[in-house]
Amino acid sequence: MKLICSKANLLNGVQIVSKAVPNKTTMSILECILIDVTENEIKLIANDMELGIETIIEGNIIEKGQI
Predict the structure, then answer these.
(1) Closest by CA position to 46, among listed 15, 1, 12
(2) Read out DSSP for 14-48?
(3) What is the pTM of this model?
């Protein structure tokens, strides 16, 4: 996965979705943010099993992927 986006756009997107990342959990998978660039847009996704937040940020996609 390769992408180019501004630091301000990335920071704003992470701040939005981090509201759904729990402080303490027994499931470590919930402590992460998914970065998905598979459909010609950059999506940041977080979820805590009750609340899910997804946002799209602007940027250039060089190579698609997920992390």
Answers:
(1) 15
(2) HHHHGGGS-SS-S-GGGG--EEE-SSSSEEEEEE-
(3) 0.86
